Amino acid sequence: MNRDSEFMALALEQARKSYEEGGVPVGAVMVEGGKVIASGHNQRVQNGNPIAHGEMDCIRKAGRRVRYGDVTLYTTLSPCMMCAGAIVQFGVGRVVVGEERNFRGNAGFLREHGVEVTLLDDDGCRSLMDAFIAERPDLWDEDIAGNG
Ligand SMILES: [Zn+2]
């Protein structure tokens, strides 16, 4: 298993955790120098916080950092514009996306702003989102504000 798959598996664990909590199953981890520096998952339902997407939760948990150029952010689902904006704002160097079939996301926007983006098209990430969207279409629609 290459390192991207290894770290994505950790992001997927985070997504599963959210799913088990009744939340939106998107997970993220941040890696620097081959080490995980933070992990997080969507907390919209759990904390009643609409901006707590998986990526935002992960960035928050990483705490204050001076620079993000050497950070790779792994996210199970392609980032929405809010998360893509935060990634560009902080200058995160690289984003690895689990899948973009269930949500198109903003890989193009990230690339246009100099972020290296790798798409894994991971079956595990996709099947968890497939299950969630089938079970909770209302919650999914709420999370993406009807932009699906
Ligand atoms: Zn987002």
From TrEMBL:
<dbReference type="GO" id="GO:0046872">
    <property type="term" value="F:metal ion binding"/>
</dbReference>
<feature type="domain" description="CMP/dCMP-type deaminase">
    <location>
        <begin position="2"/>
        <end position="112"/>
    </location>
</feature>
<dbReference type="InterPro" id="IPR016193">
    <property type="entry name" value="Cytidine_deaminase-like"/>
</dbReference>
<dbReference type="GO" id="GO:0055086">
    <property type="term" value="P:nucleobase-containing small molecule metabolic process"/>
</dbReference>
<protein>
    <submittedName>
        <fullName>tRNA-specific adenosine deaminase</fullName>
    </submittedName>
</protein>
<comment type="pathway">
    <text>Pyrimidine metabolism.</text>
</comment>
<comment type="subunit">
    <text>Homodimer.</text>
</comment>
<dbReference type="Pfam" id="PF00383">
    <property type="entry name" value="dCMP_cyt_deam_1"/>
</dbReference>
<dbReference type="GO" id="GO:0072527">
    <property type="term" value="P:pyrimidine-containing compound metabolic process"/>
</dbReference>
<keyword id="KW-0479">Metal-binding</keyword>
<keyword id="KW-0378">Hydrolase</keyword>
<dbReference type="GO" id="GO:0005737">
    <property type="term" value="C:cytoplasm"/>
</dbReference>
<keyword id="KW-0963">Cytoplasm</keyword>
<keyword id="KW-0862">Zinc</keyword>
<dbReference type="InterPro" id="IPR002125">
    <property type="entry name" value="CMP_dCMP_dom"/>
</dbReference>
<dbReference type="GO" id="GO:0008835">
    <property type="term" value="F:diaminohydroxyphosphoribosylaminopyrimidine deaminase activity"/>
</dbReference>
